[in-house]
Amino acid sequence: MHQFDSSVGCLASGSTGVQARVWVPAQWFFSREDAQRHCWLWLLGSDGLVRALLAPAHHLDYDDLLPDLLRQFGSDDAVSNTTPAADATVALPNAPIVPLPRWSVSWGHPLQRGIRAFAQALDREVVEALGDLEVQGACFGTVRNYNRLIRVPPPVRARRLQALALFPAWLAPVLLEPVERPLMFGDRDDDNDRYRRHAPVPLHSLLASRRGRGMPPQALNALLDVIDQGRDLIDAIAHFYRVDRALVRAPLGREPWQRGAMPEAVVSLLQALPAHARPRQRKEVEPRLAAIQALPVHLRSPADVSRLAAAFKRGWNGVWKTCEREHPNLPQAIRDCRDLLNAVLASLRQPPEQIELDVDRLGLAWIARKGIAALLEASRHWHGLPMVQLPLTPIPAAIPADAPLVPLFGEMDVAEGHARELLTAEALYMEGETMAHCVADYWHQCQRGGIRIVHLETVAGAAATLQLGFDLAGFSSEVRNDQLRGRYNADPSPALCELAEAVLAQLAEQADAVRGQMTLIAAQARAFRAQEDAQRQPPPPPRRQLDARLRTQLAQVLAYAQAQDDWRLPIHRPLRVTVAGFQYGQGEDVLDDLQIGDVLRLVREPDNPHDQRAVRIEWNRIKLGYVPRAENAALAQALDRGAAASARVHALLDNDWAPVEIEIELE
């Protein structure tokens, strides 16, 4: 076994490829039981790179493993892509550069001496530079970030450290990768013990996934070249971020941010502000990020960014201080504005023509036209209005409530007498009055199907009321005698019983005709039931209405939205889209039958729980899917206004998820 002085953390001479190492048992990191199966190793190779490793507990202090571990983990990125076995050793690229024991360990403890010795073997300038970037937030002092800087030649490293010191907010997210907290279990979540992969991210992939999104690789390389050659950084940063030099020179980008980087949306907003209105210090922006992120806006284009920036034209700090003075919990007050905006949208019978108006766009229009403080005041005013119970929305009757019933047979003459169905509420009422019983109360049951009331009269003039029962499921044409009562609910005479049997026998002989009538009765009963269920809708919850003051402001906001040309929807051009949700509809059952040019039917689904703008696509009454959500706004609005649209199958594609492309035109 190699000789090792545990008090200093450095291997004695003769050890190959290792400058320093320190083993840490689980008891100094975690108290929970599952952690006791592990130990940790920080290893500094002769190449200057740090490896933080999670190993089985029985490997603790076993230095004969060090050469093999150096070969296995040639770099900090040597992380497997599969879940490691319980006894496997894995790399921890997002662990801290040196161990940070959770429990109190005295300054003279061997573990503390070993940690100090290990830290002294590291590059002091790199360690301090990474520490300077941490402002009670994002952690930069990880093994991966240390190694990123150590790998480059010393002259380049010095320039990168200088660049990070000069422009930390701009360049830290380009050169490094912040983490929310150091991860001590590698690819497992430290909180819930479930494995979670954190694949290593090469530098250029990291750049492409960050501010460089949409930026050609040449721009990323150009920025790195400027940093590494020590040339003027201001122009390079301005070009890379698409901002002006004044914003790059401002102090807010020369201080580390708690988040590790300035959010992209905030950078765009600050760039859109006139120079006199911009904040200068990080403390003027970062503490307000929660309020900024709560704003009910979605910036879909540079023009939208300019609209939001217009709200700060009188000065960044002045706007926020006004809002903070009136609303101590400003982020929550801003979030509450969505209640008002949702109520406004619900109150609009017709949105502005050809404008896709959702909560975020309405919020942006309100802020751009009236200002953030005005929106907050409107929200506070609206929340203070009394709740109003709205009346039930009348539902138009598809079938009149007093419509005559579909007859089972109508009238019938047999040798024993005459039978007549009672098919109206009035007829049923007169039967109850004449026969002195409660048959008039059966009208509702007759409407819902399954029974018919019949007036019987023998040739001798005796009368009774017959209730017929039958099955509306369509499996049988059998008609039953459910009840037969005379006047005053008396038992019927034998003659009336014979008449009832004769009627049932006649119906049995006409089974085909009876079955056909049952089908019609069932359809009418379904309509009655659906209408009745609709009328039973619960009353809408009480809600606040817009008063005259809010409606005046709303009119100004809607006029502003209507005037924005880039918010208008191009609805008159043919729209070609693939059918969304094809695999969830019935399209696969009829895919082989579809032909290019087939006419399709478009059906609005305003009550769709997933998308209020949903437009269903049907072929021969068979649901194929929907117009994609990203493309349905203009079409849904046009259909809601009563416009006619035609749709046809445009192409059949070799795509299992979206095999049908359609073309839609508004007529």
Beta content comes to: 5-15%
Q: What is the β-strand count?
A: 17
**Could you say which structural class the secondary elements and strand pairing correspond to?**
alpha+beta
Radius of gyration using CA atoms only: 39 Å
- State the end-to-end CA separation: 86 Å
Shape: elongated
> Biggest β-sheet, characterized?
6 strands, antiparallel
Number of separate helices: 24
Biggest sheet, spatial arrangement of strands: 12-17-16-13-14-15
Mean pLDDT: 84
Fraction of helical residues: 25-40%
Domain module tally = 4
Describe this structure in words.
With 667 residues, the protein is of the alpha+beta class. The protein has four domains: 1-122, no CATH class; 124-261, no CATH class; 411-533, Aminopeptidase, CATH 3.40.630; 569-666, Alpha-Beta Plaits. Helix content is 38%, strand content 15%. It has 24 helices and 17 strands. The chain has a six-stranded antiparallel β-sheet with strand order 12-17-16-13-14-15. It has a five-stranded antiparallel β-sheet with strand order 7-8-9-10-11, with helices on both faces. A hairpin with a 4-residue loop joins strand 4 (38-45) and strand 5 (50-56). Helix 8 packs antiparallel against helix 9 (233-241). The longest helix has 25 residues, at 511-535. The chain is elongated, with a radius of gyration of 39 Å. Residues 1-8, 76-83 and 187-214 have low confidence and may be disordered.
